[in-house]
Design goal:
- The chain is α+β, with helices and mostly antiparallel strands.
- Helices cover 22% and strands 30% of the residues.
- Helix 2 crosses helix 3.
């Protein structure tokens, strides 16, 4: 049975005031040091405890299991700003507070669990016992009002507390957290010493905060992983700017898909693989395992017209190493490739994106709120006795996002409408769709996830050819 070092934190209330949730491994480490070096506990701090903390800071970043949370109501505090005016009167400054509210918090239930893979080395059990003594002295985690308690144990790697979000270290993860690194314990001691001696005859030293942290990216398993893609701009064969109407997105997607197939056929790749993974001629039970060809409407500016000037080719959410070769080859082969119509006429040329900060970030960045730039095509009818049913629509949207790789557990809410959310785009019914999709409902959708999701975000039964393309709304 594989064992892991498990540190479990339980908060005394359902509110957490730190900016980060879950508390980062570096914040936890600082809280452990503060608890064991404050007050009477400091007299009991010995070499076994120091060795255990130095061992902990060298371990790989832990996986984190955290209770889901909602953002609480915002309020303002007025506190001294640690300065005096010319008349030596104390001044105050405002501080905005918006605590996190922990879902289904109850005394005794774990709120955050940190798990480290343990290396097989001598003295491990003694270090675990010393860390448990340190954890027992934890008093707060977050702000000074975030009272907490903790314990350390060896646990079965397969056991997992229910109803907790699961964050795993992942180089392609959507969230980056500070983590301990070798030397952090000594650095914290030096920072504390600098703080206690910050006021001298020469003035006040403001640089006493710890800074020497490592960084680790994390992926929340309740959210879809980031998907690889390549991006192109479109230009006329004579080099002049190209723009296609918003409602002709499907046509541009079809030309891009045909170009990708032709480019890989010239490499003498396996024909059945090209037909299925690259061109999307899949079996009925595997329709989602294919490349998506997504024209991007121009949005995000007050004068945006919704026209198509860019094209993304996107991998599916789950992909094998062999299938990754397709995108790598297309990134090399397609620049300079001419897109042709059904009649063989040259329409546009694919060129590398010149300015990645224009338009593309709306579709590729990480955000919590996403709104459709092209309407979703639903896979079922959302009416009941001739009227739109909110319950049916919500259920269909959940199923559509689940099929696209976005678990229902990571979604907070939906709204939908016929009108566009983005300037330059048009109503849901105005877009051209393939004949086999024409009878299904089309709606513009806003989806709010429980945490940041990295783009691109696609959903619906037309997502592989430009329908159901979402853009991030950062200001919501």
């Amino acid at each position: 049975m594989a064992l892991q070092l498990q540190l479990t934190v339980r908060f005394l209330t359902d509110r957490y005031h730190g900016n980060d949730w879950p508390p980062s491994p570096a914040r936890l480490f600082q809280a452990l040091v503060a608890g064991t070096k404050t007050g009477a506990a400091r007299r009991e701090f010995g070499l076994p405890h120091k060795g255990a903390l130095e061992w902990l800071e060298r371990l790989d970043p832990p996986e984190i299991l955290a209770r889901p949370r909602h953002k609480g109501k915002e309020y303002t505090l007025f506190v001294p700003n640690n300065s005096l005016d010319s008349e030596r009167k104390s001044t105050k400054t405002s501080k905005v507070v918006r605590p996190h509210r922990l879902v289904d918090h109850a005394p005794g239930k774990p709120d955050v669990v940190y798990r480290w893979r343990l290396p097989e080395e001598p003295g491990m059990r003694e270090r675990v016992d010393a860390l448990d003594e340190i954890a027992a002295r934890l008093r707060t985690l977050g702000w000074g009002v975030d009272f907490a308690m903790a314990c350390v144990e060896l646990s079965d790697a397969s056991a997992r507390p229910p109803l907790l979000d699961h964050l795993l270290p992942d180089a392609a993860g959507e969230t980056e957290l500070p983590v301990p690194q070798a030397g952090l314990l000594d650095h914290l001691g030096a920072c504390h010493d600098a703080f206690t001696h910050r006021i001298t005859m020469a003035g006040v030293n403001p640089y006493t905060r710890p800074t020497r942290f490592g960084r680790a990216a994390y992926h929340n398993q309740a959210l879809a992983p980031a998907r690889r893609f390549i991006a192109f701009e479109l230009e006329q064969p004579d080099g002049s700017p190209f723009a296609s109407r918003w409602d002709q997105i499907q046509t541009i997607s079809a030309m891009g898909r045909h170009a990708a197939g032709e480019a890989l056929r010239k490499e003498e790749m396996d024909k059945s693989w090209i037909d299925s993974f690259v061109l999307g001629h899949n079996e009925a039970d595997d329709l989602g395992h294919r490349l998506s060809y997504v024209p991007l409407p121009s949005i995000g500016h007050q004068h945006s017209d919704g026209s198509v000037r860019r094209l993304l080719i996107i991998e599916p959410p789950s992909i094998s190493l062999g299938d990754r070769e397709a995108l790598d080859l297309l990134a090399i082969k397609l620049p300079g490739w001419t897109l042709t119509s059904d009649s063989g006429a040259s329409c546009a040329i694919l060129v590398p994106v010149r300015d990645p900060n224009k338009v593309l970030p709306f579709y590729a960045r990480s955000a919590t709120v996403w709104e459709s730039a092209t309407p979703m095509v639903l896979h079922g009818f959302n009416t009941l006795r001739g009227n739109i049913s909110l319950a049916k629509t919500d259920r269909i949207l959940c199923q559509a996002f689940e099929s696209a790789g976005f678990p229902e557990s990571g979604i907070e809410s939906f709204t939908f409408q016929a009108a566009p959310y983005w300037g330059g785009c048009r109503a849901a019914g105005a877009i051209r769709v393939p004949v086999h999709l024409a009878r299904w409902p089309r709606v513009h959708v806003r989806v709010t996830f429980k945490g940041p999701v990295a783009g691109p975000v696609l959903a619906g039964i037309g997502r592989h050819y430009g329908l159901g393309v979402f853009a991030a709304r950062s200001e919501l």
